[in-house]
Design a protein that fits this description.
This protein is mainly α. The protein has helices at residues 28-37, 56-60, 71-82, 88-99, 103-123, 129-138, 159-166, 168-180, 184-191, 209-223, 236-248, 254-264, and strands at residues 5-6, 11-12, 18-20, 25-26, 43-45, 85-87.
Length: 300
Amino acid sequence: MFDRLILTEELVDCRGEVLAARGEVLSPESIAEAATRAPAVTRRSLGDTPLAPDVEVPLEDRGYRYLFQGEGTRDAVRRVLLAVCLPEALFAEMLALRRAASPLHGHAFATAAVAVRMLLGVVGAARGVPELAAAALLHDLGMRHVPLRLSHLHDRLGRDEAARIAAHPLLGAYHVARVLGRHPAVHAALGHHWRCGQGYPVLASPPSRSMEVVSVASAFCALTQPRPFRSGAYDARGAADVLVAEAQAGQADANTVKVLVHALRGAAGDPQRVRFGRERGHVPDVNRHMHVSAPSRSPV
């Protein structure tokens, strides 16, 4: 089963620091151990970094207008995102992605904004929401260690290419654990492709409900953003339709998808009373996407 991998090359951060040596085995256990060895470092808020203006991009995106209607809603989400506190090394990663015009940068901020909106709709301004926002911001960091060409493919992935993609949760979780220690961001990086046990990697237990929020927010944002393998993006309703269908097929957590739909409808009432409606959103004419399946065994 796919629950670990052996590094065929060094795992290196954007500054050239080696995080893990070639030949090291990455697994949930080694990631947890790395978190215990993470040094205590000073953190600062996102609002005090050059990344602060990037918070506005998803909030002003017309594609997300149903989520962020009203200045009060945007203010609430903005405050949480600007309050995210991280070590300088992780902000450096985000800045490097921005300089490279990587789609990972926009995806990170969009996922964080959508996840915060979902959380505010059910728990309000709870104390731990900024930590969960940080988890959403960093959840896909492992893709930074995947060959860049895989992000630009127009056709379906081959077997070896899919295996490289399937490694990114382990790579990202280890990277975050080495820098941040024990933090929800480690669990978000490791479990955001869980897909109710049908995704990757194999985990000993399901992710928490808050981590499912990050997963659903990430999937929603991936659907509503341009990708080279399809002719356009889904609109918000179309993306929600896809996630509802996956929830009904047992491939996404239905209660968490309800939280997303609840937020899209203005977050009024009890999200558990949400009833899924009929499909009515925009679907791209051409879409060569298929979900990556985990390798049948771990390459160790």
